[in-house]
Specification:
By secondary structure, the chain is mainly α. The protein contains twelve helices and no strands. About 5% of the residues have low confidence.
């Protein structure tokens, strides 16, 4: 392994983080398209698909540039990763023709391609870990800086950040409650008022569904309050206060997971309405579809915020490590 200067190490470090973050973001978007695709028009869906391919391309380019510095095994890992992504993206296309004569063959090929893609994805991940570890560059993947703020921020600014985050999470909760108790029921019973919809439900099912959604709201509020208390307690210790970036990443993960879990808490109510209220169909409101995007966008936001520039103090630590 040839010696690398601090500047080259820092650049490789940055490319690795951004490459992995972009690839993970692309996979999240692809998954969201698979789930929410029918809710989008062909034009919007096609535009998102093209944007996803561009994200994959940029991410792979960043990893390839980093791998050229690390060594041949790292380059081979990126090639395997490329093949894995091609398999995963090609799998749904094999069944898109709709031609009966080739449907069974296409379905079998799609299953094999999907399985092979996931297998290659695991192999690529293992190769990446081994290659980076052998190169003595494990800092690029597993060393998390204690402070991820680009500059030292005051205790007051961090407390303001924590307060804004808490208010934002409360807004996420409030909108989620309205989506599941008002907008989605009206979308499933468009010819009825909200009181008529709840009045048609079997005894107890409406109250149980509402209680389930409110339970979800209570849990998320408690978690959001826990994060605020976490920051307030840390702020009392002065220098140990929580960096703003860590607060933002945590909040994005909380919002993403909370919106994902709301589906399960509201499933009983939605199922009762779709089985009882004419025209007895299950559907989400337009507001509900947009609200559901918080899950993938929150995950992507957390990845991209985490991949941002490391602080000057962390670069000095890498300089000291390289000097030894």
């Amino acid at each position: 392994m040839r010696s690398r200067g601090t500047a080259e190490t820092d650049l490789t470090n940055k490319r690795t983080r951004w490459g992995l973050a972009l690839l993970a973001s692309g996979l999240i978007v692809a998954g969201a398209i698979a789930v929410l695709g029918p809710s989008f028009s062909e034009l919007v869906g096609g535009g998102i698909a093209v944007a996803t391919l561009l994200v994959f391309g940029v991410g792979l380019t960043q990893l390839w540039l980093a791998a050229r510095v690390i060594g041949l095994m790292a380059q081979f890992a990126v090639i395997v990763l490329l093949v894995a992504l091609v398999c995963l993206l090609a799998s749904p296309m094999l069944t898109a023709s709709g031609i009966p004569a080739v449907s069974s063959v296409a379905a079998a090929a799609a299953s094999l391609t999907m399985a092979g893609g996931f297998a290659l994805l695991v192999i690529a991940a293992l190769l990446v870990l081994v290659a980076w570890a052998r190169a003595g560059a494990h800092d690029m993947l597993v060393a998390i800086p204690r402070s991820t703020d680009a500059a030292q921020s005051s205790r007051r600014s961090r407390l303001i950040t924590a307060s804004v985050i808490f208010g934002s999470l409360l807004l996420v909760v409030a909108v989620g409650v309205v989506v599941e108790l008002v907008w989605n029921p009206l979308a499933m019973g468009p010819e009825h008022t909200l009181s008529e919809i709840y009045g048609m439900l079997p005894t107890g099912e409406g109250a149980a569904g509402i209680a389930s959604v409110l339970t979800w709201a209570g849990i998320v509020v408690v978690v959001a309050a826990g994060q605020l208390i976490w920051v307030l307690r840390a702020a009392r210790r002065g220098a140990a206060s929580i960096p703003r970036r860590r607060q933002v990443v945590t909040a994005l993960l909380i919002a993403s997971i909370a919106v994902f879990l709301l589906f399960f808490f509201a499933f009983g109510l939605g199922n009762a309405i779709s089985d009882t209220v004419p025209p007895m169909v299950g559907r989400s409101s337009a507001e509900g579809v947009l609200y559901g995007l918080i899950t993938p966008l929150g995950l992507i936001g957390a990845l991209l915020v985490s991949a941002g520039p490391w602080p000057r103090s962390e670069r000095r630590r890498l300089e000291a490590s390289a000097a030894h």
